[in-house]
Structure formats: structure tokens, C-alpha cells
Design a protein that fits this description.
The complex is a heterodimer of chains A (156) and B (180).
Chain A lengths: L2 H55 L5 E4 L2 E8 H10 L4 H8 L2 E9 L3 E7 L8 E12 L4 E12 L1
Parallel strand pairs in A: 2-5
Antiparallel strand pairs in A: 1-2, 3-4, 3-6, 5-6
Chain B lengths: L2 H28 L6 H20 L9 H9 L6 E3 L5 E3 H15 L8 E6 L34 E9 L6 E9 L2
Antiparallel strand pairs in B: 1-2, 3-5, 4-5
Classes of the chains: A alpha+beta (156), B alpha+beta (180).
Chain lengths: 156, 180
């Protein structure tokens, strides 16, 4: 083999290695980007779950109040009954707040009792996240506080 | 050293540097721990809300709330006595513990949260007002679901003070959620 041929073979070898490294680098970068996108999507979903949970906790339609002072993390049973009575007339409004989710109030003490506050899960979703938040359930007529939790299921 | 040997050495160094860089990328990009926003929010909300809702809960004992029972329990003399379903009479400390165990059974235990609930007495020299050991006679379970001695790793601590007014001092209800 002449010296010129050796040089050409060397150049071709270097080019092959260069392109191999480039393909490997692009694949690697693509993998990293894809992972980042998935994480961002998951973070956005988790933030939406938190947002829905906060919205439920601070919903004035159900919050306990005493002399104009709001008792946070407490649900008034009579306001809740009013909310449930009027829910059908304002479905679109609540869908704009809660989206694809299901919200249940589970009373666990002194007796078990479940009330579905909102259910718009639909049949198609890829995954769901469940958040449970303890709350007081107040009956102002008997001045009794019961114990329970809000089960907030958000679907994607 | 010949020129060929020097080139090989240079190539080996380049390969070594690229490998080290790749290892760093794998370590800091692929194996980096994710910040779990939801878990952090949930734990904070559970801790805070559980104590507040628990303290406000009305019990079957003379219409007292858990906060009333804990207040009575923290006083130097207890005035509230409650009938137990087995016919015996419980003091306010034990009745509060019985109801709190009922609340945790349907929530924290069900959700597999590792926790410990305690009540710090007004006198710093005294121990937890709740029983640390189970009392099978009255069906009083301890208010924790972690092995003893209690874990020393990361935990979230939420507190809820109960005033003993007109006596001085407070009883501090404490919920520790172990995250490690």
C-alpha cells in the first residue's frame, strides 16, 4: 500500500469514528431530553393535583365560618348539602375548576359515611393520582365536629 | 518514546476524559433524585390538617373534644372521666388516646404513613402524656406505627398547642411523620 492510500484509509477511519461518536451523542442527548420532558409532564400533573386539592380545601361553598372568620380545613355539613343541591345547575363551572377528577368526603368518626362531591373521571385516562387530606366535618346545629378526610383523585 | 506511542497515549487520554464526562452525566442527569412536589405537599397537609381536625373532633365523653380531653389530661387534677365500651371508666388521657387510635386506624395506618403522636406535658421533666406501651385491658394501642426506638432520620414535625388556662402552661400535641 502506498503512503497516499494509507493516508486516505486513515482519514476514512477517523471520519467513521467521528460519525459513530456523533450518532451516539445525538442518541444520548435525545434520551436526556425525553427523560426531561417526561419529568416536566409528571411535575405538571402533580401540580394540577395539588391545585385541585387546594381548590377543594378553600371552596367557600363548603367552608366552615364563625362570625365572618373562616375556619380552614373544615367542612360545614349544611353548606355541603346546599352545594350538592345546586351542583347540577353549575356543572360547567365546577368542571373548569376541578377538571377530570373525583372528590369524595369520607367521614370516619364517629361513624363511617362517604359522600361524593364531584365525579368527572370519564372512562379514558392513562393514570391517576390520589391525595388524602384530613378535615373536620362540622354540624353547626348540634355544634359537633366529626372527623374525616377528602379523597381527591385526579386523572390524566 | 516514538511518535506512534505518543499518539496512542493521546487517544487513550481522550477516551478516558470522555468516559469520565459520561459518568458525570449519568450520575447527575439520569440518577439525580427527583423532587417529589406532591409527596411533600401531601405530607405537610396531612400533618397540619390531621392535628387540627383531631383536636377539634367531638367525642362521646360528656360532649368533650379531643382538645378538651388533652387539656384535662395535662392539668394537675383531672375532672373528666369517660365510660369505656367494656364497662370500665377511663380518665381523660386514656379516652383521648382511645379516640385518637380510632382516627389513625382509618387514616394514617390505612395510608401506610409512618408516624408517632405524642402529647408533651407542661412540665418539661415529665414524659409523653399518652401511653407508649399498649394497654390490652382497655384496648388502648400505642399511637405510633414505627419500630422502637423511634427512627432518627428525616421527619416532618407538626404541633398543636392546647392551653391549660386558667392554669399556666400548654400541652403540645405532636405528630411526627417519618420520611426516611
Amino acid at each position: 500500500m502506498k503512503r497516499g492510500q494509507i493516508k486516505i484509509a486513515e482519514t476514512i477511519g477517523i471520519l467513521v469514528i467521528f460519525f459513530l461518536l456523533m450518532v451516539f451523542g445525538v442518541g444520548f442527548f435525545g434520551g436526556v431530553e425525553q427523560k426531561g420532558l417526561k419529568e416536566a409532564e409528571q411535575d405538571a400533573f402533580e401540580l394540577r393535583t395539588i391545585n385541585v386539592a387546594q381548590m377543594v380545601l378553600f371552596l367557600p361553598e363548603m367552608q366552615c365560618t364563625e362570625q365572618e372568620s373562616v375556619d380552614i380545613d373544615c367542612i360545614d355539613v349544611y353548606k355541603l348539602a346546599g352545594f350538592l343541591d345546586n351542583y347540577d345547575d353549575h356543572k360547567l363551572y365546577y368542571f373548569s375548576i376541578f377538571g377530570k377528577s373525583k372528590i369524595t368526603l369520607a367521614q370516619t368518626y364517629p361513624i363511617y359515611h362517604n359522600t361524593t362531591l364531584y365525579d368527572n373521571f370519564g372512562s379514558e385516562f392513562t393514570k391517576k393520582l390520589v391525595t388524602n387530606i384530613p378535615v373536620s366535618i362540622y354540624d353547626p346545629v348540634y355544634d359537633v365536629y366529626r372527623f374525616g378526610y377528602l379523597k381527591i383523585e385526579v386523572a390524566q | 518514546m516514538k511518535r506512534g506511542q505518543l499518539e496512542v497515549l493521546g487517544l487513550a487520554m481522550i477516551v478516558l476524559l470522555i468516559s469520565v464526562a459520561l459518568l458525570f452525566v449519568v450520575k447527575f442527569v439520569f440518577l439525580a433524585p427527583r423532587s417529589d412536589l406532591r409527596q411533600s405537599f401531601t405530607q405537610k397537609q396531612i400533618g397540619q390538617n390531621f392535628l387540627a381536625a383531631m383536636a377539634a373532633t367531638s367525642t362521646s365523653c360528656q360532649g368533650s373534644s379531643i382538645a378538651d380531653l388533652v387539656e384535662d389530661c395535662g392539668r394537675s387534677y383531672g375532672e373528666i372521666f369517660c365510660p369505656h365500651p367494656n364497662g370500665s371508666i377511663l380518665n381523660s388521657c386514656d379516652h383521648a388516646q382511645l379516640v385518637i387510635a380510632n382516627l389513625t386506624n382509618s387514616t394514617l395506618n390505612e395510608w401506610n404513613i409512618r408516624y408517632r403522636i405524642s402529647a408533651d406535658p407542661p412540665d418539661p421533666g415529665e414524659d409523653n402524656l399518652f401511653r407508649e406501651e399498649p394497654d390490652p385491658l382497655n384496648g388502648l394501642p400505642p399511637l405510633y406505627n414505627v419500630p422502637t426506638p423511634f427512627p432518627t432520620g428525616a421527619k416532618q414535625v407538626k404541633t398543636h398547642p392546647v392551653s391549660l388556662y386558667p392554669e399556666p402552661g400548654v400541652v403540645v400535641l405532636r405528630l411526627e411523620i417519618f420520611t426516611d
